[in-house]
Structures are given as structure tokens and as C-alpha cells.
Design a protein that fits this description.
Layout (H helix, E strand, L loop, with lengths): L2 H11 L10 H17 L4 H16 L9 H16 L14 E7 L5 H14 L4 E6 L6 H12 L2 E3 L7 H14 L4 E6 L7 H14 L3 E7 L4 H14 L3 E5 L8 H10 L3 E5 L7 E3 L2 H8 L5 H11 L2 H12 L5 H13 L3 H5 L5 H5 L10 H8 L3 H5 L6 H11 L3 H24 L1 H12 L2
């Protein structure tokens, strides 16, 4: 996400490296590079100019503290300005009404149906009873797709395959929700083109009839500046409440995320990456700005972990760690939990400074497959008692998992090192254990 923009902004700040003071000359040079980086990321030229003018004005108006370098100060100012550009603070979704109705709109192929499923899963995790409603009456596979997603996340789907009146279907769904205790109705609509007058009338009629608490416009971030122009056209007709950016895990240049708030004056409420139902995030402008600048987003990483990890399972694992009984079955369980959190490369990128380190690495869920294959090729006895795995067992495991003996040996060594660290932490306890861990990480 935003890899190219991050790299170019980092290069721009290097202009100030070693400079003792901020001057109009060195700031002008850096700001010029920042503007170029934003335009290359498909940010609207006027928006890019406004942002960089603000950065320059703010930088020249501040005194550089002895403990802060000019480069660090400009990174901070740029972070603040990018955050402001994207909305400043997160915008909450309106869940008022009984049931409350969320209308999903957008272009064909923007990922509306998948996002509808993700949003249903997200709201369900917050304790809400959700009903998905299939109102795409034109795409033959749309209803089936929504039903598959609903079954996957355990959310009921309301559909009337023979009915070709989207407004009637939606109204019937709301009646059904009231009778069955559903607190939220998510209405998935057909993809449409802004130039298709008949389709635009239909989505307008849906909004007028349903009076939704939220109308969300789903946009494919891969389409760049075109996404911003489309959002503007839709907003003029629909006056939506918020934007959802999908496919941010692709080769997106980021221009849509950085420009859309400025152009349509509507907040980005969610971002979506990948196909997994868990791959949905509430949009935090300040956190996104920090990630773009390589400062990480540890808060979001912790929140993802809290949402994904099962408390009872976490207590069980913690108990085994304290008793030095952590085994390969526990390791495999934790691996599955991590995979549920979302795109692995994206997760690693949330750690400060890691963006630059992993930008050229091919890191994804496929990277775990050899590890999983090795562990699953072990017998239950071997998984529970790793110490019994001798040379002959390692050969058998390598053959059974389709990996090499070197890969098996490497995993065994890493697992052994991890267990030693856990043992050391247990012996030292508390703050001393954390200090040991931090020293190990600094090597």
C-alpha cells in the first residue's frame, strides 16, 4: 500500500539530511520533490500544490529545536498536512434507526458485494444482528455471490431472485429484519456507470425510499484519479455519506485516498484490502499519513490482533508458555490466527521503518505454506514433543511435506530459539524479561 509514494517521499526528505537549519532554499527543494511524488501518485495537481504550499509555509514559520533535525520537523509537518488532507479524524458510521439501513453504491467491478460481506462481518463482530440484502437484479451471479459470503461469515442473506424491483426487495428486507430482530440491513446494489441515467435513477429511488442512515460509495483505488472524478459525479446525484476505498493491497498509487476527501468533501470511512472477510479497516487519516511516511501504525496492528485473537485461546497459550510447554500444535494455531488478521505484507508494514525493508519482498500468506506443510507432516507425538524429532524423523517430515531437509532444520532451529527466549522471559519475568527481549531485537 502506497509503497512507491513512501519511497519517493523518503527520498525527498533526504534533501534536508545533515542540514542544521531550515532555510527557504532547502525547504523549497524538498517541497518540490514532495509535490512531484504526490503528482506521480496520481494526486490531483491542485490538491498537491495546496498541500505542498501549506507544508512550505508551516515549515518556514517554525523554529527548529536543538533536539529535532530539519528533516524530522518536515516529516512531522508533512504527516500533519497529509492527515488534514484525508480528513483529520476518523468518521464513525451512523448506526441509528431500528433497523438501521446501510446503502452500498458504486461502479461496476468496484468490489461492492465483497465489501458488503466484509462490513456485515465487521458489524457482527461488534455484536450487531445483521441482514444482507441482495438488490443487484442485473448481474446473474450477484445473489449467489452474496449468499456464499453470508454463509462464510454466518450472516443471513435476504433475496428475491424472481423480483426485478430493487426498491420492493429492499423494503421487504427491512420488514423481514424488523420481524426477526435484525438491527442492521446492508443493501448491496447493482454496479452502475455515472452516465447510465436509468441506473442512476434506480439508486436515487432506493435512497429516497429507504432513507438509509448511511449511503456509502465504494470505489476501486486502483483506478486512481478516475475514482475521484467518478465519486464527484455520484455525489452530485446521490449525496452519499462516506467513501470506501477497496483494493488498496494492489498496485495502487494512492492518489484516490489522498484526493477524494478534498474533492467531494465526504469522509473516507473504510478501507479494504484483499478478499478475506477480515480485511476491512476503519479509516484513520492520521494513522494512514504515518504509514505513508514509514512511521508505522502499531495502534491499528494491536487493534487487529485484539479483534482476531480468541481470548480463551490466548490464555491457554500463555499458560503453556509460562510452563515452557509451547509446542508445534500451539505454533500452528497462532499461525492461523495471524493469517486471519489480513494481508501479511500490509501487517508487517504497520511496524515503524519496515516499509522500506519489505518493499521488494514477496511476502504473503503463501510464505507460510512450507511451514504449515512441515508441521502438518509431523505426527501428533512430534508436534506435542518437538524434542523427539531426530535426524531420521526430519528426513521423513521433509519428504512428506515436499520440502528440503534444510528447510526442516531451519524451522526446528527457529522454533528452538523461540522456546529458549520464552524460557528466559519466564525466568526473568516482568520488566527484566522485556528488557532482554528489546536487547535481542536490537542486535
Amino acid at each position: 500500500m502506497f509503497d512507491n509514494l513512501s519511497v519517493k517521499l523518503d527520498q525527498a526528505f533526504k534533501t534536508l539530511k545533515g542540514q542544521g537549519t531550515i532555510t527557504e532554499l532547502n525547504v523549497a527543494k524538498t517541497v518540490k520533490e514532495i509535490r512531484r511524488a504526490l503528482i506521480d501518485a496520481d494526486v490531483n495537481y491542485k490538491v498537491a500544490k495546496e498541500v505542498t504550499d501549506n507544508i512550505k509555509e508551516e515549515a518556514l514559520g517554525r523554529d527548529v529545536l536543538i533536539s529535532v533535525s530539519p528533516g524530522q520537523l518536515l516529516v512531522k509537518i508533512t504527516s500533519e498536512e497529509l492527515s488534514r488532507l484525508m480528513g483529520g479524524a476518523k468518521a464513525d458510521i451512523d448506526l441509528s434507526g431500528d433497523p438501521n439501513v446501510i446503502l452500498i453504491s458504486g461502479l461496476q467491478g468496484s468490489g461492492k458485494t465483497t465489501f458488503s460481506g466484509k462490513l456485515a462481518s465487521y458489524l457482527k463482530s461488534k455484536g450487531r444482528q445483521v441482514l444482507l440484502t441482495a438488490c443487484d437484479i442485473y448481474r446473474p451471479a450477484a445473489i449467489d455471490q452474496l449468499k456464499v459470503l453470508g454463509e462464510q461469515i454466518g450472516v443471513e442473506v435476504y433475496a428475491e431472485p424472481e423480483n426485478k424491483d430493487a426498491v420492493k426487495i429492499a423494503n421487504n428486507a427491512i420488514d423481514y429484519a424488523k420481524k426477526n430482530g435484525k438491527k442492521t440491513v446492508i443493501v448491496d446494489t447493482a454496479g452502475r456507470l455515472a452516465i447510465d441515467e436509468e441506473m442512476m435513477k434506480e439508486i436515487s429511488s432506493l435512497k429516497s425510499a429507504l432513507k438509509p442512515s448511511e449511503t456509502l460509495f465504494v470505489v476501486d483505488s486502483m483506478t486512481g484519479q478516475d475514482a475521484v472524478n467518478t465519486a464527484k459525479t455520484f455525489n452530485e446525484r446521490l449525496n452519499f455519506d462516506g467513501v470506501v476505498l477497496t483494493k488498496l493491497d494492489g498496485d495502487a498509487r494512492g492518489g484516490a485516498a489522498l484526493s477524494i476527501r478534498n474533492v467531494v468533501d465526504k469522509p473516507i470511512k473504510f478501507i479494504s484490502t484483499g478478499e478475506k472477510m477480515e480485511a476491512i479497516d476503519v479509516f484513520h487519516p492520521d494513522r494512514m499519513a504515518q504509514r505513508i511516511l514509514g512511521m508505522g501504525d502499531v495502534v491499528s496492528l494491536v487493534e487487529k490482533a485484539q479483534q482476531t485473537f480468541d481470548e480463551q485461546e490466548a490464555r491457554r497459550i500463555n499458560k503453556k508458555i509460562r510452563k515452557n510447554q509451547f509446542d508445534f500444535e500451539d505454533f500452528l494455531s497462532q499461525l492461523e490466527q495471524i493469517k486471519k488478521m489480513g494481508n501479511i505484507k500490509d501487517l508487517i508494514g504497520m511496524l515503524p521503518g519496515m516499509n522500506k525493508m519489505i518493499k521488494d519482498l514477496d511476502v504473503d500468506d503463501e510464505s507460510f505454506k512450507p511451514i504449515e506443510a512441515i508441521i502438518k507432516s509431523m505426527t501428533p507425538l512430534e508436534r506435542r514433543n518437538p524434542d523427539v524429532i531426530d535426524g531420521s524423523r526430519r528426513k521423513r517430515i521433509a519428504k512428506g511435506s515436499g520440502t528440503s531437509i534444510q528447510q526442516v532444520n531451519g524451522l526446528m532451529k527457529q522454533f528452538g530459539d523461540m522456546r529458549k527466549l520464552m524460557k528466559t522471559m519466564n525466568k526473568m519475568g516482568g520488566k527484566r524479561g522485556m528488557a532482554a527481549l528489546s536487547q535481542l531485537g536490537g542486535r
